[in-house]
């Protein structure tokens, strides 16, 4: 859709032309796509400052609508969700890694997979994973010594990997050093490294001009295929299939970089599927449930490729995003001693045990801290959509083909929605305050029909891990250290976020015999 097409769009009565939406000024980089690539958070804040809830930008000559207000966010993600598809750019760059998973699939295929997986994430099922969350948090700090410098980002990543590993794969995903042994690399380490390489590669593709050229070619072929019958249509379909993967991926060497990373992921999941089938699908982990899953009439299941794609989706969503949010929560707690003491008091009341579901309300400060961390540092900081029909957003005509960037970060830092948005304030999520806000004012998991299927899982994990960690360890920020959010595949810290560990509820650091006893005690629960 070109600017000329947009100005010619036929208006309905009472609406306003797309080209009259406030336009973001061009920064020193000389283009909006360059700014988005190199300083995304500044880009999203500038849209709010200059344009408000709706702003207009240009990515490689393509008009982009940036949404940063609750009402227009609700229109985009909830009320008019059927008028959009995922932005094809996101699907293109993520396809080598997650294929036709829930995050990238569309239409009937997406709906059928969502129905098959929904029972796995019902509240009563999510509750069964609570013990995993507390146990993994406790295991992670068994060998921590008083005054030791800890990379909090690495710690929360290992915890989240352990939780999703046991819940999804029924496997211990994090090898841990025993007394006097040293760390031994596990398959989980290789899988985590492969995911990191693949996610870094996908982020790099968003900024490459060839990616946009391939995207434009795909859209042209899609339009051509609709108009031409017979052999031309079949040829077009073959071309579209070939262009499903980024050409930079197809042309990359098979045993290096992203191709090697994807092979590691595929091989790991294939081994797990073989093991589940040999065990007669007798387990209760999510991977086994996916193998057993059937449609309502009992005839439709998931293929191995579909299970692989869903497993990767869930692994990324279950460890990458949650780990990042937990790290940011600990970062903010270290700067707020009084608030930290409230969190510690809630963890101490449990004494390290897993709470019953009816006791979760007693961890209200932990939940509010985690929600505020998700507001200030939303792991998924923007959602890309493309209009598949003409519609209106905020009273403006939005033509078919328009790219819409639903800016979670921009809205979460919009002072019209959250006064003093750069101040960490968990009281924003007191029940009475939260209920007074628009339901789409907080969207770290998205909203509408495509809301993250594991949102309840992630919220409970953050709440329980903060309580368990705070009972055993207090993290103190290193003097003079500055940690900033760095937007890549998720909004991660730009460094290791190293903090000093102070032991709590232990008179002294445990001796080797005590460490072995504690490890055995928790391993027995595992």
From TrEMBL:
Family: Belongs to the cytochrome P450 family.
Keywords from the named record: Heme, Iron, Metal-binding, Monooxygenase, Oxidoreductase
InterPro entries from the UniProt entry: Cyt_P450, Cyt_P450_CS, Cyt_P450_E_grp-I, Cyt_P450_sf, Cytochrome_P450_Monoox
Highest taxon, organism lineage: Bacteria
Entry protein name: Cytochrome P450
Pfam families, per database record: p450
SUPFAM superfamilies reported for this sequence: Cytochrome P450
